[in-house]
Give the backbone structure.
Amino acid sequence: MSNIEIGAIALGVSIVLIGFRLHIGLALGLSAIGGMMAIVGSRGTLGIVMSTPYEFSASWELSAIPMFVLMGNIAFYTGMTDSLFKAARLWLGRLPGGLAVATNFACAGFASASGSSLATTIAMGKIAIPEMRKYGYDPGLSGGVVAAAGTLGSLIPPSILLVLYGIFAEVSITKLFTAAVVPGLITAFVYGAMIIIRAKLNPALAPLPEERPTMAEKFRVLLDVWPLPLLVLAVLGSLYAGLATATEAGAVGAAMAMLIALIQRRLSFEALRRSLYESVMNSGALFFIAMGAVLMTRLMALSGLPYFLSDQLELYAVSPWSLLLITSLIYLVLGCVIDPIGMILLTLPVLIPMFKTAGFDLIWFGILVVKFVEVGLLTPPLGLNVYAVRTLAPDVPLSKLFRGVSWFILCEVIVIVFLCLVPQSTVWLR
């Protein structure tokens, strides 16, 4: 059996194990170890297993992840997000579907502080879903907008997925963050436009609230929103001004979140304890998956499978755009059964060498990968963000929630096509 066949079998076994609900880190790691033993023997495999996970987890760049996770948890547990939806509601509530539009942009605002799709979905869903239901919004629309807008946490910087992609693809995380700004804003505005059009055509989906806030009330609520813009400015400002690396910007964000909470007198011992506990648990789970993925990356390099596939693409004259279409279909299928971090870490060892050979800009490709993952967060049967919304609204059938997010999946397709046709949109700021 050739090394290429061993690599392909190991990759297939890992997907099967994940399908049987084995932990993703174990599925990737065990499959990789079995493949390496077949190629380099037990002694060589032992050396790789002893050194590679440590070398990866000790990487300086990876320390950005727990820092961004801690920043988001502090912002959530100290209540910095509570006024965000209220401000969006007062300013946008009189638009057709105004509360849903407000939820959409509030999610975009929170995403810039959390870096996590699930965190954004749960944090904003707790506030926005009861509010929209109170005003008679269609459950599919109210749940769908929270699930879909929550995916902005995967893209709008600081994004944990972009940090992982940057490390595996060996590209600048700062450039990835910069490239993600415009696509993230485009997605939020396309979502908002779709909601307004649907609500205008069918007012029963989103009845207009009777309240008419005064301009004084609108400006007064802005005084309560200052923590999040300041937090985002501290992180992205230090990053783009060249004062901090991505890792240091994460530390700046976590420190600034604690300082703001102290100024507001919201940093209780319990809030700090819960923030630290959640950050350690989330980061530990993520690192365990990443260690399995880095072992799979090493196996791919030993087997030569990615380079064999690249040669086959050249041999059969597969165009770069056909490769991109195939990639999108792969993510669409994987998104039905695998969570976003597992999805991205499973595919990168194979896809990055292929796209590098095809001559694609890896920064642009990174943004597309995250967009594909966003769609995976919404598609059945897994649709993690949809299930997160279901826990917040258990009386709403899953079928109605998936119908609700189908409109947002259509918006995602429109944005992805735009990014493919106008790749300059990702390089405009960098």
Remarks:
- Residues 328 and 372 are 6 Å apart (CA to CA).
- The chain has two domains: 1-58+288-303, 61-267+304-426.
- The chain is about 75% helix and 0% strand.
